[in-house]
Amino acid sequence: MLLTEDAPARTQRIDPAFRRDILEGLAQEPKATPPIWFYDRRGSELFEQITDLPEYYPTRTETALLKAHGPDVARAAGAGRAVVEFGAGSSRKTPHLLRAIDPAAYVPIDISGDFLHDSSAELARAFPHLPVLPVVGDFNQPLDLPEEISGMPRLGFFPGSTIGNMDPGAAVDLLRAMRRLLGDDAMLLIGMDRIKDRDRLIAAYDDAQGVTAAFNLNLIERINRELEGDMPVDGFAHRAVWNDEKARIEMHLEALRALDFQVAGARFHMDRGETIHTESSHKYGTRDERILLRAGGWDPVEEWTDAEGLFGLVLAQA
Ligand code: AVI
Question: What range(s) does the Histidine-specific methyltransferase SAM-dependent domain occupy (predicted)?
Answer without folding.
Answer: 18-317
